[in-house]
Write a structure and sequence with these properties.
By secondary structure, the chain is of the alpha+beta class. The protein is 32% helix and 21% strand. It has helices at residues 68-88, 91-96, 99-110; strands at 8-11, 15-18, 35-39, 48-49, 60-64, 116-120. Helix 1 (68-88) packs antiparallel against helix 3.
């Protein structure tokens, strides 16, 4: 799902760096305790304060609650159950076909605080 969202890193609420798909980004900081937030405009991570005692670096990876494989699998489940329900005229299969959409909407809207995560790489 990260490939569809425009993810940005905000450093100290002043500098914004866009993240591209699977490409590392080097973000120089001048302070000893910068705060980093990752956002897509709707979801925000908790501010992460980085502590530098000496010249060093941090290596992070941005993760999403819905990865691309889950999104593709949900799309195929939706199509499979709906077409199977359409061909057999079994209404329950048509209703079950909407389960992936309900699950993804739950993760996207209700579970907003854990949708985008900063993980150690």
């Amino acid at each position: 799902m990260l490939s569809f969202l425009k993810i940005r890193v905000v450093v100290d609420s002043t500098e914004i760096y866009p993240l591209l798909n699977d490409q590392p980004v080097v973000i120089p900081v001048n302070d000893d305790h910068p705060k980093v937030v990752v956002t897509d405009g709707f979801h925000f991570t908790k501010p992460l304060e980085l502590i530098y005692n000496e010249p060093s670096y941090y290596n992070f990876q941005i993760a999403c609650a819905i990865n691309d494989l889950q999104l593709l699998g949900g799309f195929f489940l939706l199509i499979f159950f709906y077409l199977f329900g359409f061909l057999t005229d079994f209404f329950l299969l048509k209703v079950v076909s909407f389960a992936p959409i309900v699950y993804f909407l739950f993760l996207y809207y209700i579970n907003r605080k854990e949708f985008i995560r900063i993980e150690a790489a």
